[in-house]
Specification:
Layout (H helix, E strand, L loop, with lengths): L1 E7 L4 E7 L5 E5 L5 H8 L5 E6 L5 H4 L2 H8 L2 E6 L3 H5 L1 H8 L11 E3 L4 E4 L2 E7 L8 E5 L4 E5 L2 E2 L2 E2 L9 H12 L7 E4 L5 E2 H7 L9
Parallel strand pairs: 3-4, 4-5, 5-6, 10-13
Antiparallel strand pairs: 1-2, 2-3, 7-8, 8-9, 9-10, 11-12, 13-14
């Protein structure tokens, strides 16, 4: 598996291009914006884009999804259907995030906990992690020990819970049951900031180690 990371939007959102080395099939995770930059990067690689995959519905993660889906003629996959209200609210989100307005759209496929998302030889287990947003999902590839977590957990921090339908207790529950249950070696690829691992966060993340009240 190859992963290309592109920082997009004024929020430096980590858009990921995940590539199966064997088949050169690939998918784009959380294209928050800067579609032209993502398309230009992809032109430098021999890959076939199979889908646009979303961890949650915040505009800094989905802003370029529709444009890229149309460009590559592929489906938008995820998140979980409890996220629908954030897609209903895309025009309001443009104001909230200070982005230019975008055309409202919805995913072609909603995901559920226990689903498997496959591209080429890669197989990602879908885990539902509400708290930052109600329909947030994460994607775990067991063979390569990588998890794409969106805004659930960051290097030394956790996702915000002060947005509508955010829930701090629920977020911590999601992290403990869906992230910290993965092997320590698992690489955590977050929506913002540097990569980390499950083992490092288990010990040093102040929001989950109990060092903050
Ligand atoms: Zn978010």
């Amino acid at each position: 598996m190859d992963i290309i990371t592109l920082a997009v939007t004024p929020f430096s959102q980590n858009c990921r291009i995940v590539i199966c080395q064997q088949t050169r099939q690939a998918f784009i995770v959380d294209p928050g914006g800067d579609a032209d930059k993502i398309i230009a990067e992809l032109a430098r690689h021999t890959v076939v884009i199979k889908s646009i995959v979303l961890t949650h519905g915040h505009l800094d993660h989905v802003g370029a999804a529709k444009q890229l889906a149309d460009h590559f003629n592929v489906q938008i996959v995820g998140p979980q259907k409890d996220e629908q209200f954030w897609f209903d609210a895309l025009p309001m989100q443009a104001q909230m995030f200070g982005f230019v307005p975008i055309q409202p759209f919805y995913p072609d496929v909603w995901l559920e906990a226990g689903d498997t998302y496959e591209v080429g030889d890669l197989s990602f287990a879908v885990r539902h992690c509400p708290g930052h947003t109600p329909g947030h999902v994460i994607f775990y590839e067991a063979r390569h020990q990588v998890v794409l977590v969106g805004d659930v957990i960051f290097n030394g921090s956790v996702g915000r819970t002060d947005f509508p339908k955010g829930d701090a207790q629920q977020l911590l529950h999601s992290i403990k049951t869906q992230v910290l249950t993965l092997p320590d070696e698992t690489r955590i690829l977050s929506g913002h900031g540097p990569d980390t691992t499950v083992g490092v966060e288990r010990i040093s993340n102040p929001f989950i180690s109990g060092k903050f009240g």
